[in-house]
Amino acid sequence: xxxxIVKHLKLPPxxxxxxxxxxxxxxxxxxxxxxxxxxxxxxxAGGCVVAYFKKSLIAGLIFxxxxxxxxxxxxxxxxxxxxxxxVMTQVWQEFLTLKTSEIWLEVAENNSKxxxxxxxxxxxxxxxxxxxxxxxxxxxLMSYTVEG
Length: 148
Ligand SMILES: CC(C)(COP(=O)(O)OP(=O)(O)OC[C@H]1O[C@@H](n2cnc3c(N)ncnc32)[C@H](O)[C@@H]1OP(=O)(O)O)[C@@H](O)C(=O)NCCC(=O)NCCS
Fold this sequence. Notes:
The chain is of the alpha+beta class. The chain has helices at residues 14-27, 36-44, 87-95, 112-120, and strands at 4-9, 46-53, 56-67, 70-78, 102-108, 124-129, 139-145. Strands 1-2-3-4-5-7-6 form a 7-stranded mixed sheet. The relative contact order is 0.15. The structure holds coenzyme A (COA). Coenzyme A is lined by residues 28-30, 59, 75-78, 83-89, 107, 111, 113-114, 116-117, 120. The site of coenzyme A (COA) has 22 residues, from strand 4, helix 3 and helix 4.
């Protein structure tokens, strides 16, 4: 798949923020209710890596800088029509070009697609928050240590 991958540190143009908000809240199959303002605040605390296919934004990963060496993946997703096509894998490769020694994230224990993805990228479980979500699902805390 011929993708254009673009990395933004801090706030991208407003058009990209809107597209990313729409993608993550409506087109990836996640039950999130984030406002445009919340997405902008997260981007300001870190940035994003996005993928375009034929000029349409089809995947995005938002991250937050915890400190100089640690990043947290806040939210990520691939458009439902393009999942299982190695799109997020390509986004991830670009994300890893950013300087960091550790990456953290939190994922619902019933989100097997995402958990499989993170395990394939080398994440290990580092903790658990029981009954964390409204539906009583637990949150898994996962981390990845960058080699070298
Ligand atoms: C998780 C997600 C981002 C993966 O994106 P993607 O572009 O489809 O991922 P890729 O095609 O690059 O998949 C890479 C690996 O992830 C895992 N994976 C992806 N989709 C999967 C599925 N439906 N079932 C099982 N494993 C899956 C596999 O290990 C896969 O490797 P493989 O192709 O060799 O089997 C996508 O499923 C998604 O957007 N899900 C909804 C949003 C979400 O849950 N986000 C995470 C929480 S914020």
